[in-house]
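Before any further analysis, we paired sequence with structure tokens, yielding the entry below:
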Amino acid sequence: MLVTIEVINNGALDLLSGMERLDLIRLNANAKSDAMPEKKLSQRFAGALRLSDTAYETYQNSLREGRNEWRKDIY
């Protein structure tokens, strides 16, 4: 099982190292680091839908209608 954690307190690293020495866990220090930020969502998912022109227009109209619904007052 793979679990990702974020270390908030450096003292936790000592605890994790001890657990690794007891062969309870395996630390992977090469996992995603804070030094390499992820791409923006718009960059990651650009073109992911692969819709035809008509399907894209239908999708955009549906989004527009949904956004307009939120602008209406509900009392």
